[in-house]
Every structure is written in C-alpha cells, then in structure tokens.
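Sharing a chain and its predicted structure for anyone who wants a worked example. Both blocks are below, sequence first, tokens second.
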Amino acid sequence: MKIDNVDVIQSYLLTTARYDFNVYEKRILYRLVELCQPSLKGQKLNDRFSINPDLFGMTEIKIPIRYLLSNEEDHNHTRIKDAVTSLRNKTFEYEDDKIWKLIGIIETPIVDKGNEFIEFKIHPEIYTAILDFSKGFRKFELKTAMSFDTIYAMRFYELFSGKTNPITYSIRDLKIMFRIENRYKLFADFRRYVIDTAKKELDKKAPYSFEYKVNKDGRKSVSITFYPVLIPENRDEELEKRALQKRLSPSWELDKMIIDYLKQNFAFSSKEISYNIDLLKDAQTKLDLMFFLSSLKRKALEKAKPKGYVIGAIKREIKKNK
C-alpha cells in the first residue's frame, strides 16, 4: 500500500502522553491523527475512511487494513489484528500539574474480512486530545513516521520534529513517558537500546534528528540534553515544494487551525481576526505561527488585554525576523 505523504499536526497531549505501544499499534494512532486533519482545515474527509459519532458519545472509526501497513511489501494482517487487540486492552495515562487521567484507547474492534476494513470506537477524551492544541503541537511527515522500525524512533521524531532549541529530560521522566520504568536498569543499556537506536534511525530517515549530552550528578547519569538537528536532505521535496507554493500563492488564506486557535485560546472574535487579517497572513508566511501563538498563551492570559498583547507580540516577532 502506497502511503501518501502529508505533514500531520499532532497535539502535544499525544506527543508527551505515557504509553508503551509497539510499531503497529503506533501506526494505528498515526492514522487516527491523520483522519482528524481535514476537520482542522475545514476540508472533507477522504471517502476511504469514515468518522461518525454514535449515540453514546463515542466516535466510530472505519479504516482499510492496508492503510495500517508500512508499505506495499507489508502484508502482515495478523499483526494488525494483534495490534488492535492489544490497543483494546491498553490505556493512555496523562498527567500535568492539575490532573491525572487514565483512558481506554479503543472499544469494540471489528475486522470485516471480506472488505478488509477495521472498525472500532474511540473514547471522546481520545478524540478531543487529538484535536486539543492548547498545550502546543508537533508537525511531522506521516510517511516518515510510518516508516520507522522502532517505537523509540517514532517517539523521538514526534518530540523533536520542528524544534530548534535544546531540551533536557531527566532519564526518569523519559522512562515514565515511554512506560519502560522497569526496563534497562543499567543506563548503558538504556542509552544503547533507546537513545542510540532511535538516533541511528532518525539520522537515516528523518528530516529531524538530534545530538545529545548526558548530564551527571557525581558519577550517576541523571538527565539528557537533546539538541535537535535538521537534516534537509531527508525532507520530502514534494512536501517542501507544496509548502513554498502555498506561501507564495496570492490566493492563500489564513489557516483554519490558526483561526480556531485564536478564538479558543485568546477569545478573538471573527471580526477581530478580520481587522488583523493582513498581519496574521503576513505572520503565517514568515513565522511558524501556530508554534509562536502556543508559546504566547501563558503570558497573554496574565495580561489585562491579552488580544492586544498577542497582536503586539506578532508585530515585534515579524520585525525581529526581518
């Protein structure tokens, strides 16, 4: 099955959630994220898939089995059924400074053998998390993410895609995030089988990889500082060309995702967005606007006039980038 490459937007809630999935289970999640992209952009869903709410608040999903395989040579349908079964028995664990949640991933999976479709239901909290960008987001290439052979390459690709600044994780937090607290007791094993294995695959396949430095307290390794690295030759040329054409097109409009984010997080009205449309369109061509807006949220909400603060910050950032 040929995978059409697209840049997908994933909520940071999913990027940093605690779970331990295998590669096939993760590919199912990637497809769920992909299915939500049209609604973010105000577009119609591809007719090969379906997403429908049921009477009890669950969302019914229908996906062709071949879309969960990594490539045309992958015919391992049994692994897909095993992955769906395993997902049925697993949960997402999410925790921040205010809440802790444990949520079942999918319910009532059904395989239509004749038509080679898989159907299942997802909890409303999962569907909401896929569309919740209030804590930020990550953008990455779907085809690249689907091509990885290890779950750790998938996770690190999500964490560092589009990032430029160094980021430090304690070894304990990384193990908790990946749900491997009881594995790799020796740091040398964790480094070899998780960090270095992921880096090797990212260097080979992904437009974003990383270098890293191990931080110690005495003789004990306690954290790792990652330095995101852009690898332009691994970027999909067609996707890059499409992105450039979109920015240069005179008919290009403000992305629906930006509009929704301004309304939901800063209480902008449609009229207020219209007043600032030229500035916002200019910002979208010159900045990673979604990322910039998400970085403003905490400070903006502390201001007496958060909307004015956001507009002023955008103007300053554009001026600075000139």
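Comments welcome. Confidence is low (pLDDT under 50) at residues 5-9, 133-137, 247-252.
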